Amino acid sequence: MVNRSIAQQLLDDDKDEAGRWIIVYDFIEHKPNPNFWVNLKRISKTNGGGLIQYSVYQTESLREAQAVRKLVNHYGGEAMVFRCVEANL
Fold first, then answer.
1. What is the pLDDT of residues 64-88, one digit of tens each?
2. CA–CA separation, 81 vs 62, rounded Å?
3. For residue 71, what are the CA distances in angstroms to 43, 47, 55, 87?
4. 8-84 is classed in which CATH architecture?
5. What pLDDT was estimated at residue 18?
6. Adjacent-strand bridge partners of 61
């Protein structure tokens, strides 16, 4: 039996939908476990998403966005997922 990372397990859970997704998260009153960062990096390698600043993650995959949200929750943080629409102002 192959041990799969929590990142891979979370990525397998959801169907994908294209778009631009922003995940804002916070770990209230504690810092995230170092394994959080390891798994977040694993998730970011799937579709090219990544941090745009500390506690803000951007991706073009709903599946990746949901995986990040679930990862944050798994490590005791809170997260919100937003779908973005570009406005030509």
1. 999 999 999 999 999 999 999 888 8
2. 9
3. 9, 16, 13, 30
4. 2-Layer Sandwich (3.30)
5. 79
6. 18
